[in-house]
Each structure stands twice: as C-alpha cells, then as structure tokens.
Amino acid sequence: MRTMALVVRFGLELALVGGAAWGVWQLSGDGWRWVAAPLAAVAIMGLWGVLLSPRAAVAAPDVLRLAVEAALFAGTGLLLVSAGAAGAGAALVVVWLADRVALRLTAGRPSALEPDGVPGDRPRLSGPRPGPR
C-alpha cells in the first residue's frame, strides 16, 4: 500500500509541474508564454527540491512542508480550473488529498521505495551514505 502511495505521489509531482506549466501557458499572452510556462515549472521544481523532497536542502518543520505542498497543489488546481481544465484541477487536488491520507496511514511501514519506512533513507548503489542533515 505504501509503495503504491509513493508511486502515486511521484506521479502527482510530475502532474503538478506539468499542470502549472500548461495552465500558465494557456493564460499567458502570446509573447510571454515561452518564458512564463517554463519559469513556472522551474519555480515549482526548485521549491520542491529545496523544501519538500526527501533529501531537501532545508530541514523545514513538517507543518511548513505540508502548508507549502498544499498551497502548490491548491494553487495549481485553481490555475487549471481558470485555464479551462476544471476536471484536471479538481482531480489533481482530490488525488493529492487521498494520497496524503494514504501516506499518513502507512507512515513507518516499509516499502520497496523506503525499506526502513524512513522517507529519504533509500539504499544507494555506490558511494558513502550522507551524514546527518
């Protein structure tokens, strides 16, 4: 169950980036599309990498991480609705909420992606393990 929730989470991350880029593309003027859509995708990927990824550069409190994640998914959902993809926007938010519940209910359980049930503590193929954050 946890492994499936983690796979869905990865798909949601991809949908978040793609949905934001598509929504900005649809709502931007012709001249700014080529700048605004990639910039939206890069901004979300950067924020995700710094605050939300299992190996995030910043060790933010869980409540802040959840708030940022919720803001990203809700904002992208609203962006998709505004761009004319109401079903996709609603689905993004609903699937994200269901996945968050599944991840919470299965916290601490091992999966193929988190053998010890610890997020971000994946085995490496080679090289030393990183020290404490």
What does it look like?
The protein has one domain (2-105). With 133 residues, the protein is mostly helical. It is built from four helices and no strands. The chain has helices at 2-27, 33-52, 62-82, 86-105. α1 packs antiparallel against α4 (86-105). 65% of the residues lie in helices and 0% in strands.
For the secondary structure, the number of strands is 0
- Characterize the quaternary organization of these chains: single chain
Note the run of SSEs as H and E: HHHH
- SS class: mainly alpha
Helical region count? 4
Percent range of helical residues: 55-70%
End-to-end distance, in Å? 28 Å
Report the mean per-residue pLDDT as an integer.
87
Write down the Rg.
16 Å
The poorly predicted ranges are 121-129
Tell me what portion of residues adopts beta-strand conformation.
under 5%
Shape: globular
**Sheet with most strands:** none
The tally of domains stands at: 1
Transmembrane segments: 6-25, 32-51, 71-98
Keywords: Membrane, Transmembrane, Transmembrane helix
Region (Disordered): 110-133
Protein name: YrdB family protein
List keywords for this structure.
transmembrane; 65% helix; 0% strand; mainly alpha; DUF2568; 133 residues; single chain
Please give a quick description of this structure.
This protein is mainly alpha-helical and 133 residues long. The protein is 65% helix and 0% strand.
Topology:
Layout (H helix, E strand, L loop, with lengths): L1 H26 L5 H20 L9 H21 L3 H20 L28
Helix pairs in contact: 1-2, 1-3, 1-4, 2-3, 3-4
